[in-house]
Amino acid sequence: MKFRAYWALARGVLLETVRRKDLWVVAILGFLIIAAAGTLGFFGFKGLEVFAKDLAFNVLGLFSTILAILTAGRQLPDEIKNRTLYPLLARPINRFDFLIGKLLGAVLASWIAFLALSAAAALALAVFGVAFEPIMIQYLFAKMIGLAFVCGLSMAFSVFMTPSAAVTTTFILALGGAKISQALTMSYGSASPGARILYRVVDALIPHYNLFDIGSRAAYNGWPPVEPWVVGFMLAYCLVYTGGLMTLSWLKFRVKAL
């Protein structure tokens, strides 16, 4: 019963994504990627293989992250605004089921868009003889874990904040979290003992979305795949962090006046 409820909610998110033309945007971006590759191919790819792959990974990462954040961050606010939340909760679906089902839908939508863009980029580069190595599979898997992570982050913030604030905060933390962590590391040596403890706590709580991006490694030829335990750590970090966020979101959402 729970699975059917989750799938129904997730399917609704996918249908809404199609209705909003989000996947059409992905198709247009894929076409632009192919067109850009064709332009570079006109001048020749020799010596530009690493640059082309690195550019492709950056484009894929940016656009898929934007789509994931926007898709997840608008689920709850749109349901409340359109007053479609009430008939959903009138069914055998409680608020926890609602959050999980919507999260799964946002994750699936972001995965479909990411894989479609990845296929377009891979096809465009393969036409000009730019080969991808086995580490590319790990890149795709790690990035999909990261998209699930950022979807959970965006949806959790949407429970506590306004839609625009939730999306903006998620963007800042997802794209700037690495810089914040770097700043804390640089300041750690000169900080007082009390401040060091605070720095450690803040660094542990900051969402480290950059951990899921191994595009820079995958762009260079000859790099072997990362150790399996690294990917396992990514998955565990995603599950623990996202699970904590969704628990806090549910505790807030279950007493939220609608």
The arrangement of helices and strands along the chain is HHHHHHHHHHH
Q: Total helix count?
A: 11
Spans where pLDDT lies below 50 across 5 or more residues? none
Kindly state the number of beta strands.
0
Largest sheet: none
The shape, in one word, is: globular
Question: What's the N-to-C terminus distance?
Answer: 25 Å
Mean pLDDT: 82
Q: What class, by secondary structure content?
A: mainly alpha
Q: Tell me roughly what share of residues is in helical segments.
A: over 70%
Radius of gyration: 20 Å
- What count of domains describes the coordinates? 1
Which percent range describes the beta-strand content? Answer: under 5%
Describe the model.
The mean pLDDT is 82. The two termini are 25 Å apart. The chain has helices at residues 2-19, 22-43, 49-73, 75-81, 85-90, 95-127, 135-160, 163-188, 193-205, 215-219, 228-253. The protein has 258 residues and is an all-alpha fold. The longest helix is centred in the middle third of the chain and has 33 residues, at 95-127.
Give a quick precis of the structure.
With 258 residues, the chain is an all-alpha fold. It has helices at 2-19, 22-43, 49-73, 75-81, 85-90, 95-127, 135-160, 163-188, 193-205, 215-219, 228-253.
List keywords for this structure.
258 residues; mainly alpha; 11 helices; 0% strand
